[in-house]
Write a structure and sequence with these properties.
The complex is a heterodimer of chains A (318) and B (308). By secondary structure, chain A is mostly helical. Chain A has 13 helices and no strands. Classes of the chains: A mainly alpha (318), B mainly alpha (308).
């Protein structure tokens, strides 16, 4: 187990370094001068080359790429993460201020997806091709096709129409005002959770159907176990493994999807900060946020792999 | 049997709708009632009526015409991105699966790194880096598709490479390249088709999301995502400006997904079930794939195992 842990950890570390290199290189091949984005075409042309050089130096963009990369790594190590071009605050402040909202949305969405998806999947696997199965399959196919940000827009429209919903302007942290905080995150979490729930339902249904045909399930039935016990205690634990794996992949959808969903709901989370930074071409903010999203994704998938090894001895002892 | 019929019926419907949408996109200038770019300040923000079936937007452009022209851009972007990304990825995957060794090892690491980013976020960063415009969006989406093609087709190529006819080809003295292109590659075409069809839907959604976030195809070009972005610039979003472009996206994605499922179901049952699950992503009918592989590939084995 320890060897497995070590190997998995080293692999993840290599991936993370690769990810940071890609983020760095991609954002440094930007065509055009970042100063044009910063000052506008007019402001840029009014400045003397000497002034431009000073600003570039201030921003740390005039050094060679390896130097810039090493400096970025140092910034990450100290936890400051560099400064935004446009706002005085560091990226660390930005993440600490806006991150919690997005994290709450992601976690709540994950919980909703399991709470909704799993029972629905079980229900539809118990009687395949029955009415419940047909309904759930219809909805899961539909939910996979509906873009989540559009669903969010429709929800916002409906809320606006019937309840006079206003998009939140301020960040309200959970520890400041739980009720208001919940109001902000509940919409995005439900939309993202239902979309992921559709995948969970499909996955748990097909895995359960596969497991239910195994010999040991027939044995359990032959012993006279109640159908409920057969499904929940014998079949389900073995069917759950792939569903756990898929949750890691789905988190990627949640992370990516939350960017658009936050925009649709007007939630001032991290995803919106990323969109703003991309539109403003705020390279330092973008590189840190993209790296953060990738890190979370890699980290969760490591956790999923570990839980898989923990749940399935065959993987542990290979 | 009933399930099989219903599955094929759904797939056929999906294919028909997809075809219809492609025809609408190609014939946009003939079908669209008005110029999608022409503003009409006397008819701004009008709800759907007999004059404009989908209503008009903030500057009086006809929403129906914009949805029709939007199909053009959205499908063009999606098809190009998939043609580029999934194809490059698949060819790379064939090479990985057949050649193996160090080349495969390094390639797998690169694909793993590419897959460490959430799709939308990677596409956003890339399209920011290479500039705005249609080609930038296409390339950005294409790059996010590469690792999927690479990994899935690699495992297909890997299992094909172990088959006797490949060995026979090699034994007959054929060159590496010849075996790869003439013996291994054709076996990967069917899974590639399934993959590409499924990815069309994903590409359409990513394109729409990029447009919605304001980092996609630059306005005023009508795309479904741009229309949704325009819809919320107003103080109060008008329901028809939100509803119709989104419906267009949903119907298109649904059609391509059903078509992809159908192609997969009618595919060669000899394909390894794990491979097929990889191809289709999240456990779509995994049980069915298993049934076809473990039992005789008869029509009944294609049905749901629980029904038997």
């Amino acid at each position: 187990m320890q060897k497995y842990l070590l190997r998995r950890g080293l692999f993840a570390l290599g991936t993370v370094i690769g990810v940071s290199l890609i983020v760095f290189v991609v954002l440094r091949i930007l065509p055009g001068d970042p100063l044009v984005a910063l000052l506008g075409v007019e402001g840029h042309s009014k400045m003397t080359p000497a002034d431009r050089a000073i600003i570039m130096k201030d921003l740390g963009l005039s050094d060679s790429l390896p130097v810039q990369y090493v400096r970025w790594l140092r910034d990450i190590a100290t936890g400051q993460l560099g400064k935004s071009f446009f706002r005085g605050d560091t990226v660390r402040d930005l993440i600490l201020h806006r991150g919690p909202l997005s994290a709450e949305i992601a976690i709540l969405a994950l919980i909703i997806s399991w709470v909704v998806g799993l029972p629905v999947g079980i229900l539809s696997a118990i009687r395949p091709n029955g009415t419940a199965d047909a309904i759930t399959r219809f909805f899961s196919i539909l939910f996979i096709a509906v873009p989540n940000f559009w669903l969010s827009m429709l929800l916002v429209l409906a809320l606006l129409f019937w309840f006079g919903y206003k998009s939140p302007i301020m960040v309200v942290q959970l520890w400041e005002n739980p009720a208001q905080n919940l109001q902000i995150i509940i919409g995005p979490a439900i939309v993202l959770g239902l979309a992921q729930g559709a995948y969970i339902a499909r996955m748990s249904r097909s895995c359960l159907l596969e497991v239910i045909r195994e010999d040991y399930v027939r044995t359990a039935r032959a012993k006279g176990a109640v159908e409920r016990a057969v499904v929940l205690r014998h079949a389900l634990p073995n069917a759950l493994l792939p569903v756990v794996t898929i949750s890691g992949v789905l988190l990627g959808f949640v992370l990516g999807g939350s960017v658009a969903v936050e925009q649709a709901f007007g939630v001032p989370g991290l995803g919106r900060a990323l969109v703003t930074a991309i539109i403003e071409r705020d390279i330092i903010v973008v590189q840190n946020l993209v790296l953060l999203y990738a890190l979370i994704f890699v980290g969760v998938n490591v956790l999923v792999d570990l839980s898989y090894a923990w749940l399935d001895p065959r993987i542990r002892y290979q | 049997m009933g399930t099989l019929l219903r599955q094929n019926w759904l797939a056929a419907l999906g294919g028909l709708v997809a075809l219809l949408i492609v025809v609408v996109a190609l014939g946009a200038p003939l079908i669209a009632p008005r110029d999608p770019l022409k503003a009409d300040f006397r008819h701004m923000n009008k709800p759907p009526s007999a004059a404009a079936y989908f209503g008009t937007d903030q500057v009086g452009r006809d929403a129906l015409s914009r949805v029709i022209y939007g199909a053009r851009t959205s499908l063009f972007v999606a098809f190009s991105a998939v043609l580029l990304g999934t194809t490059v990825g698949s060819l790379w995957g064939v090479a990985c699966g057949y050649l193996g060794g160090r080349f495969d090892l390094v390639s797998q690491r690169v694909m793993e790194i590419l897959q460490s980013f959430p799709d939308l976020i990677l596409a956003m960063a890339i399209s920011m880096a290479i500039g705005t415009g249609l080609p930038a969006v296409i390339v950005a989406i294409a790059i996010t598709r590469i690792p999927f093609g690479g990994r899935v087709i690699r495992s297909v190529a890997l299992s094909v490479s172990a088959m006797p006819f490949v060995e026979a080809g090699r034994a007959a003295g054929a060159s590496q390249l010849r075996v790869m292109t003439l013996h291994v590659l054709p076996q990967c075409v069917a899974p590639y088709l399934v993959l590409a069809t499924t990815h069309l839907g994903v590409a359409i959604v990513i394109e729409a999301a990029l447009g919605f976030l304001g980092v996609g195809v630059p306005p005023p070009t009508p795309t479904w995502g741009n229309m949704l972005a325009d819809a919320i610039t107003g103080l109060v979003p008008q329901w028809w400006l939100v509803l119709f472009p989104g419906l267009a996206i949903t119907i298109t994605v649904l059609a391509f997904n059903l078509l992809g499922d159908g192609i997969r179901d009618s595919l060669d049952p000899r394909l390894a079930p794990t491979v097929m699950r990889l191809v289709t992503g999240v456990g779509r009918g995994g049980a069915r794939g298993r049934a076809t592989a473990t039992t005789a590939p008869s029509a009944t084995a294609q049905g749901e195992p629980g029904a038997a």
